[in-house]
Design brief:
The chain has 204 residues and is mainly beta. It folds into 2 domains: 56 residues, left handed beta-beta-3-solenoid (Ribbon), CATH 2.10.270.10; 114 residues, Immunoglobulins (Immunoglobulin-like), CATH 2.60.40. 11% of the residues lie in helices and 42% in strands. It is built from 1 helix and 16 strands. Strands 8, 10, 11, 12, 13, 15 and 16 form a 7-stranded mixed sheet that branches. Strand 5 and strand 6 form a beta hairpin. Keywords: Repeat, Signal. Pfam families: Big_14, Choline_bind_3. InterPro entries: Big_14, Cell_wall/Cho-bd_repeat.
Length: 204
């Protein structure tokens, strides 16, 4: 009974987050669909958890809807809907950590270390998100129009560590960044599914 109540609380929170996300889109915006995922005329591709027509869906960092795969332990069927009848699998034990905990304002590059503690090889792309913690929640920061990511897949071997460089100066408001808590977010996958990992740091 306790497990059931906890699951209901988690699902309710996901619904609330999804509704707030979708309601933030302007009244004149139109939803459209392409091979990469759903997008609208006001914003770019939707990403992360979405509650659509009574079902939970997950859109990866490129805006593509996940299907026939597991994300953060939750299974999504062929239609892209989360299957509530399947038991949650263990989330992959993959972590990411910034090289330093504190950086001075104006720092252009952040090095992160991605550690694969599992017995499975994994991989990820070059894309990442930069978020800032404000008003008790994380906010995604926009990249400049000239920012590009190479279409590459990077292998993460079992029990291995990869070092990656993430640029901050490609952010749209890089010169206006203020002191505070930030994080780099990347999407990782292996044969068990997808998960998001993050590395927190501060700018002072």
């Amino acid at each position: 009974m306790r497990k059931l109540k906890l699951s209901n609380v988690v699902m309710s929170l996901l619904v609330l987050i999804s509704v707030l996300t979708l309601n933030s889109i302007g009244a004149n915006a139109e939803w459209k669909h392409s091979t990469n995922g759903w997008w609208n005329t006001e914003k770019s591709y939707i990403t992360g958890w979405q509650f659509i027509k009574g079902n939970y869906h997950y859109y990866n960092i490129d805006g593509a809807m996940v299907h026939d795969a597991t994300v953060d332990g939750y299974y999504f069927d062929a239609s892209g809907a989360m299957d509530p009848n399947k038991d949650r699998v263990q989330v992959q034990d993959i972590t990411m950590k910034a090289e330093e905990r504190v950086y001075p304002l104006g720092t252009k590059d952040i090095n992160v270390y991605i550690t694969n503690n599992t017995n499975l090889d994994g991989g990820y792309g070059t894309r990442y998100k930069v978020e800032k913690f404000e008003d008790n929640e994380w906010h995604s920061l926009d990249f400049s129009k000239n920012a590009t990511f190479e279409d590459l897949s990077i292998f993460l071997l079992s029990k291995d560590i990869n070092k990656e460089n993430c640029s901050l100066d490609t952010l749209k408001d890089f010169k206006n960044l203020t002191p505070g808590k930030y994080r780099i977010v990347k999407e990782i996958s292996n044969s068990e599914g997808y998960t998001n990992i993050s590395a927190e740091f501060s700018l002072q």
